[in-house]
Design brief:
Length: 61
Amino acid sequence: MAFTVIWYGRQGVFDKVTFDAEKTAKDHAIAMFETRRVDDGVVCVEVRKDSGTVVFSHAEN
């Protein structure tokens, strides 16, 4: 099963990255959030299963 990390900016979807494992996708989202927020203006990140179910999300405060 694939897991997609979806990065959102103020205008909508900014970028998508696919991983094979949920833990890897979640760890990537957590580790990169602050850097992507500062560098790219990301305001939210989600990890979704192939079915579209959100398994993790994080937004700026």
